[in-house]
Amino acid sequence: MHSEKKGIKMNLETTIQSVVAQSVKTLYGVETAFDQIQIQKTKKEFEGDITVVVFPFVKAARKSPEATGQEIGEYISANNNLVSNYNVIKGFLNLTIHKSHWIETLSDIYNDENFGIASPTADAPTMMIEYSSPNTNKPLHLGHIRNNLLGFSIAEIQKANGWNVVKTNIVNDRGIHICKSMLAWKLFGNGETPASSGMKGDHLVGKYYVIFDQAYKAEIKELMAKGVTEEEAKKNAPLILEAQKMLLAWEQNDTEVRQLWETMNGWVYAGFDETYKAMGVDFDKIYYESQTYLTGKQEVERGVAEKSFYQRPDKSVWADLTADGLDEKLLLRADGTSVYMTQDIGTAKLRYNDFDIKKMVYVVGNEQNYHFQVLSILLDKLGYAWGKDLVHFSYGMVELPEGKMKSREGTVVDADDLMDEMVDTARKTSQELGKLDNCTPDEVEQIAHMVGLGALKYFILKVDPRKNMTFNPADSIDFNGNTGPFIQYTHARIKSVLRKAAEQSIDFGTKIETSLAISEKESYLIQLLSEFPTVVKLAGEEFSPALIANYEYELVKEFNQFYHDFSILREENEDIKKFRLQLSASIARTISTGMRLLGIEVPEKM
Predict the structure, then answer these.
(1) How many structural domains is the chain composed of?
(2) What stretch of H or E contains 129?
(3) In the Cβ-directed half-sphere of 538, how many Cα atoms lie within 13 Å?
(4) Is the same domain home to 471 and 564?
(5) For residue range 41-84, what is the model confidence (pLDDT) as tens digits?
(6) How many angstroms from the chain centroid is the CA of residue 112?
(7) What ranges in 395-519 are assigned the alpha helix state H?
């Protein structure tokens, strides 16, 4: 293992497996491997904490599942003080864990500041995670938001599992789409700049991308009115020919074209930086396609020399992947120009030189599944150790209730506008509900930002990332139900209780006696808390922030039921009061830790 992480639930399961193995050996003379002993959480409708599946032992017992379960339960109950009671439902043995165990468990959790989070070691392997990957011809939109939030959260989750994580971005800053914005600005811009227009640079460049498309369509329509076919019109419209000419000039290092390219890209990068900062995501290393595609061409040429790829008579270069169940893939055009695959190979080469990568993860939408299937094989053919093991984290598309977005038509949902709208809505909703009544103006703005962005992030991240989703802003800001604000408000509520305890000088950090009589609800909350390290581990294995998000909701929902039914500060029994404060403090910290893994801040007060 490359990390040390305390998993209390895992330790309990291991203990139960050991006890079951011993009982089966004693009762039936059969050795049982731990992986054959199935342990699961007891369903809520049944009494118990841990359920053992009895069916694998029926053959050795030569008895019915119910009788086998009774025998094993009786043996465990008589020979182990961890289990206080048991019952059998068909082939399932439900074990009730002694309350003293849960009190000891809470003490361990409460005293572990890094509960659920791995302590990375100096020799931790490196996982590189690529996300965002924007084009410099338009601002970031709702689709980019899902990509960035998933990428950032996956990186945080992998760190929590002990990986050394490098967050990276590849900026697509060259190609015909970039030249379209440049040409439109040159023809129609009249020297407009972000400063003169008051627009963010990425928005300004995106405006000219839309203008190009509008003018291009008008030319196509005009040519078709003269009897030219649509296909011919698209190929021969003056604007597209001029854009292609500009791309050629760029590749030939034309001074004027390169200067315009650098100026407009500079506007876009400044705009992107503002958006990333507002979104709360960052990168350790940014690569640019303009700096990687030539390396890609060199790698492809090496592949030809080593006979991994082949050249056709027209000088184009291809990879024959038919032996891998795929087709033939173009890597260099006949004129020597590169394709997207070439750039990705070049970027991979540079990354391999820069970092000792053990696992490479690409966070890219599911429309690129084939591309990454091919890239994996090509990198393997070129000798990169992690080629075959690269992970394409393929996620589904995100839409608004109104439907799909199209950037060239200017119908996208702009990321900046959406985030501003979320913060405004959070401010208004929170004020209407009286949740900001005791806050200063600065605190109001800080909390509105936390809640607005928290609502957006949580709504997107709670969904299974592999599924398409519809983002509805109106549903995301709700202080009830499975939402970010509900979780954030619960954290603030607990913090308020803890502040009042401090004001009353209640010292609840002392050891709680294991003989304390606690309720079933409290036992269940501790059991739920103890599962956090396992959830973090599973979220890392499955690359799924949704597992963290939905665990957080379950924990918060159970706490709110407890808060409604039990007194904390008004509890007369001082030991019970201290226990409940420890429990509340541990839950608050776990809420904060889990939300941090999602890139979400939680307020101290609301």
Answers:
(1) 3
(2) strand 126-130
(3) 14
(4) yes
(5) 899 889 999 999 999 999 999 999 999 999 999 999 998 888 98
(6) 25
(7) 415-432, 441-461, 473-476, 484-503
- Coil, strand, or helix at residue 366? helix
Rg (CA), the chain: 30
Q: Which domain holds residue 89?
A: 3-97
Token pair belonging to 20: 């079951």
395, two tokens: 């996620």
Residue pair 476/549 in contact (Cβ under 8 Å)? The answer is no
Q: What whole-number distance in Å separates Cα of residue 604 and Cα of residue 144?
A: 30
Q: How far apart are CA 247 and CA 261, in angstroms?
A: 10
pLDDT tens, 239-285? 999 999 999 999 899 999 999 999 999 999 999 999 999 999 999 99
Give the Cβ contact number of residue 388 at 10 Å: 11
Alpha-carbon torsion 351, 352, 357, 358, what sign? positive
Burial of 431 (0-12, 13-18, 19+ CB in 10 A): middle
Whether 43 is covered by a domain: the verdict is yes
Inside any domain, residue 108: no
| Cα–Cα distances in angstroms (integers) from residue 370 to residues 107, 325, 386, in the given order | 50, 12, 18
* Pair (180, 76) in one structural domain: no
Helix (H, G, I), strand (E, B) or coil at 97: strand
Please state whether beta strands 317-320 and 328-332 pair in parallel, antiparallel, or not at all (unpaired): antiparallel
User: How many CB atoms are closer than 10 A to CB 258?
Assistant: 14
In angstroms, the CA 308 to CA 320 distance is 9
